[in-house]
Amino acid sequence: MSGPEDRAGRHRKRMQARKEIVDAGVARALQERGVVVLYTGDGKGKTTAAVGTATRALGYGYRVVVAQFIKGAWECGEKNLLGRLPPEQYPLQWYEMGTDFTWETQDFEADKAAARALWDRALAALRDDSVYLVVLDELTYALNYHWLNKGEVLDALAQRPPEQSVVMTGRGAKQYLRDAADTVTEMRALKHAFNDGVAARKGVEW
Ligand code: ATP
Ligand code: MG
Question: Are 160 and 166 in contact (CB under 8 A)?
């Protein structure tokens, strides 16, 4: 039989062991530099996490550039909110691609031109050491559709200012992109309401 005191003792021991592991990890993490984060996989949460990170950086007044490699003026609640922030205090630039949906226009050259125009803006941010965080949302599509040149993207990531961090998102990230990132999270869909016939929900999905 174990009483509350035994349980408390075991809990204390477990917490102590946990603390030692965490402290050892913290002691090893001595590098101070920006990181490249990749959110991929077919589960929901990639863009939400990327924009959450943008909010986190903005909360400290850091300069943030968001580039969304999806065609069309997607409405999104976060953009509505963050767009209202006073820019002198919370310096955010939010760029998007073109005006029509990719799968509606089906015009490879027009899509490519729109992606390249957006990439030029992203590239300017990736060369600017006053930009603390660059979000390249849905970048994997622009790469997988060959709108962008993979070598050019990898070079820009490698040559960015050392203090700058980058968050990339999109399904189907290829191995080269996973290799280029410091932190990779694969969001795995266990289920999604859409597949049960539930429409994309305002304020949840967009
Ligand atoms: P979110 O924007 O909600 O963080 P995401 O960026 O991970 O999602 P995407 O792959 O970019 O998702 O897909 C865009 C849209 O599709 C979003 O509205 C998202 O909620 C929805 N979605 C995400 N995962 C799934 C899924 N497994 N099945 C159906 N719809 C999905
Ligand atoms: Mg997304």
Answer: yes
Distance, CA 52 to ligand 2 centroid (Å)?
A: 12
Has this prediction a pTM greater than 0.85? yes
pLDDT at 100: 55
Residue 123 near residue 53 (C-beta atoms within 8 A): no
Per residue in 11-34, pLDDT (tens digit) is 999 989 898 888 888 888 878 999
Domain 35-196, CATH among 3.40.50.720, 3.30.470.20, 3.40.190.10, 3.40.50.300: 3.40.50.300
Question: In angstroms, what is the span from residue 79 Cα to ligand 2's centroid?
Answer: 14
Measure the CA–CA gap between 130 and 153, rounded to whole angstroms.
20
Beginning with the edge strand found earlier in the chain, give each strand of the sheet holding 133-137 in spatial order. Answer: 92-97, 64-71, 133-137, 165-169, 36-40, 183-186
Percent of the chain scored above 90 by pLDDT? 70
What are 68's two structure tokens? 């969304």
Cα angle 68, 74, 78; round to 5 = 75
Instruction: From 39, 42, 44, 144, give the residue whose CB has the most ligand 1 atoms within 8 Å, as the site to mutate.
Output: 44
- Give me the half-sphere count of Cα atoms (radius 13 Å) on the Cβ side of residue 186: 9
- Ligand 1 atom closest to the Cα of residue 70 is 11
Regarding the beta carbon of 48 and ligand 1, being less than 6 Å apart is answered yes
